[in-house]
Amino acid sequence: MPSSPKIAKVEPLPGDEAKWIEFHKISWTDQAGTARIWEAAARKTRGKSGVDAVAINTIIHHPSRPTSTIIILQYRPPADAICVEFPAGLVDANETPSEASLRELHEETGYRGKLLHISPTIVSDPGMSSTNMQFATVEVVLKEGDKEPEQALEDGEFIERVVVPIDELYERLEKYSEEGKKVDARLWHWAAGLRFAKTL
């Protein structure tokens, strides 16, 4: 039985020790001509695509089951909580976001599918970070009797995948939140948009 993750210590991170991120001091001039300073975090891993990461919305079609999607549960130290998210990951230096979407989906969930759409480059938290991403929609078509595939997780990854009927997603996220899990904003916005489109 694996142990529960826990924070041992939180301390300032010297810039020369940071492997994944760095801090920027941005000097800029606002619309009134006033000189200002902004503090931001930036990834150090952005490759030639110019895109840091991808998140993947999976649409699963099955002959006798409702149309579903895949969410993942994993512990995130900055939130000190199990987070509920779309499958996602960084874009490698020499791959495209489209390639990264299919690779990350397979690694984190075991599923392989067809890329239906990938968004323009979008920002995640522009008031704090320069991080950007693209949002992919991947279709998975299953046949009766298909077995659930094996995840291809890297060493040190502890990711639980959950297949959820799309019509039940919003309520499932509310339940996870009540349990103390933290729902990723991108997933919540997508689920809320689907719900509101049906109810407003």
From TrEMBL:
Pfam families: NUDIX. The keyword Hydrolase applies. Residues 46-187 form the Nudix hydrolase domain. GO terms for cellular component: nucleus. InterPro entries: NUDIX_hydrolase-like_dom_sf (IPR015797), NUDIX_hydrolase_dom (IPR000086). Keywords: Hydrolase. One of its GO terms (biological process) is ribose phosphate metabolic process. GO terms for molecular function: ADP-ribose diphosphatase activity. The keyword Hydrolase applies. This is Nudix hydrolase domain-containing protein.
